[in-house]
Design goal:
mainly alpha
């Protein structure tokens, strides 16, 4: 009987099919199947892990969605402001992450090579790292655009943006190269994390880094909310009304939008981050898949939050797809809810 191709989440090719038991069950008792001749077609083990199909499907959707954003920003010379460069960086990182998921599925079930596995996992690690770092850079950019509103559109801002891009992609590349250059658990299975072939130390560094970045983003968004509310309050006082002010209402929507952005980011990544810190390779792969799949959905949501809601990108998309811009899009003014 042909065996199932190895999964990047489990040392045992068929461990994902285990029907229960504790963490040590998967490590000590490999799953075996009777001869194919003695089984009915419905009892035969699956040759492809359904979870891997889900990840590959997510990767395809991520790649297609973010490729559109990258194409629009690349082809439109008007979208060269620091904000659009950072959105483009986020879309490029998510595009590479989606391609990495598809390539991993292809290599795992066709090549079945450790070298190919290391390369695809390295690509996925580097891409998702760049995606998270780009989200932090966008948050920093939004804070600076409000805190230094008068001097934001300057050459110094552009230079700072390019510096952030070089640093975030350089650091992401280093993180992605770690498993490729020897920091992996292929030679010593006991050092594996929940994501093979990453070591427990490697995944711990990634998880702790994410928690630190999330804390910094949370602090920046709190400061952004304070600035936006203070500006709205000052404008309302100048017009001698507060609660009924349309600007005040849209400002409250903007604060709600920030909460949704941060909440979505945490809901997607936090389960996998926490699980990676407390679990290791002996835990059932089902738990890893159940936390990793939602993390990939963050790259599906990012274009909707950061790109497709932007008025200038909406115009560019309409021009690319239809050759015209609807009046409702062309005349819509930017409001605090667009922060």
């Amino acid at each position: 009987m042909s065996e199932e191709p190895p999964s990047w989440l489990s040392p045992e090719p068929t461990a994902w099919a285990s029907g229960g038991g504790g963490p040590t069950d998967n490590a000590s008792v490999p799953v075996t199947f009777p001869a194919e001749e003695s089984l009915s077609p419905r009892q035969l083990p699956l040759l492809v892990n359904p979870w891997d199909i889900v990840l590959c499907t997510s990767g395809t959707l991520i790649a297609c969605e973010n490729a559109l954003v990258v194409l629009v920003i690349w082809q439109n010379p008007a979208l060269r402001a620091p904000m659009f460069l950072l959105i483009g960086s986020l879309a490029l990182a998510d595009l590479l992450a989606g391609l990495g998921l598809v390539l991993h599925f292809t290599c795992a079930y066709l090549l079945q090579s450790d070298s190919a596995q290391l390369l695809t996992v390295g690509l996925v690690v580097a891409s998702f790292s760049a995606s998270v770092f780009s989200l932090l850079a966008i948050t920093i950019d939004r804070y600076l655009s409000l805190y230094y509103a008068l001097t934001y559109n300057s050459e110094r801002t552009a230079a700072f943006t390019y510096t952030m891009l070089v640093l975030l992609w350089g650091l992401s590349l280093c993180l992605g190269l770690l498993p490729v250059t020897g920091v992996n658990c292929l030679a010593e299975e006991a050092t594996c994390s929940v994501v093979r072939p990453l070591t427990k130390n490697n995944i711990a560094v990634l998880s702790v880094s994410f928690l630190l970045l999330f804390g910094l983003m949370l602090q920046l968004y709190v400061q952004i909310c304070k600035i936006v509310m203070r500006h709205a309050h000052q404008i309302a006082l100048q017009h001698h009304f507060l609660a009924a002010s349309p600007h005040y209402v849209t400002t409250r929507k903007g604060v709600s939008t920030l909460a949704i952005i941060l909440g979505t980011f945490a809901a997607c990544w936090m389960p996998f981050t926490v699980y990676s810190l407390i679990a290791d390779y002996t835990y059932p792969p089902l738990y890893t898949y159940a936390t990793l799949v939602p993390a990939t959905y963050n790259s599906v949501i990012n274009p909707v939050i950061y790109a497709f809601r932007n008025q200038e990108i909406q115009k560019a998309l309409w021009l690319v797809c239809c050759g015209c811009v609807p009046a409702s899009v062309a005349q819509r003014a930017r409001t605090p809810s667009d922060v």
